[in-house]
Design brief:
There is one protein chain. This protein is 75% helix and 0% strand. It is mainly α and 143 residues long. Helix 3 runs parallel beside helix 5. The radius of gyration is 16 Å and the shape is elongated. It starts with 7 loop residues before the first helix and ends in a 5-residue tail after the last helix.
């Protein structure tokens, strides 16, 4: 089916999937553009739909890879409450990474702690870029 004949949900989903594919190929900026287009469709037409929150969560995550931290925070906050209901952590991961990168350690700690509370020691797998000792300190784990 041609793109212009699809529903808004199908269009947004296609754009997000294009972003995922580009990200897999290492095309971070192009991926962010596809996710941004998906986010615009979702904001305009899908605010009451679960896909809106899924897209905002994914968009925030790809923005982190582009070091666009303030935009990542804005996108991730849109999905935060919805993800909590789904027992998902991607938006919290985005917020933790963005705040940490911006030097807002106390704000980042709050999200690292929430992730640890939700997923336990899986946090060490979720954040391979952090040394285990650093993560233990961020979530106040004593070893």
């Amino acid at each position: 089916m041609e793109f212009h004949h699809k529903s808004w949900q199908e269009k947004a989903f296609d754009l997000a999937n294009q972003g995922i594919s580009l990200d897999t190929l290492g095309e971070k900026e192009a991926a962010a553009c596809s996710w941004a287009a998906a986010a615009e469709v979702a904001k305009a037409h899908l605010r009451d739909n679960d896909i809106y929150y899924w897209i905002m969560s994914g968009y925030g995550a790809v923005l982190i890879q582009c070091q666009r931290y303030l935009e990542a925070i804005e996108a991730a906050k849109e999905a935060l409450e919805w993800e909590a209901q789904q027992n998902q952590i991607l938006s919290r991961m985005t917020l933790a990474r963005a705040l940490y990168a911006l030097g807002a350690g106390d704000g980042a700690k709050s999200y690292f702690q929430q992730i640890y509370d939700m997923k336990g020691d899986d946090i060490f797998v979720a954040f391979p870029e952090f040394e285990p000792a650093t993560l233990r300190e961020l979530v106040s784990i004593r070893k």
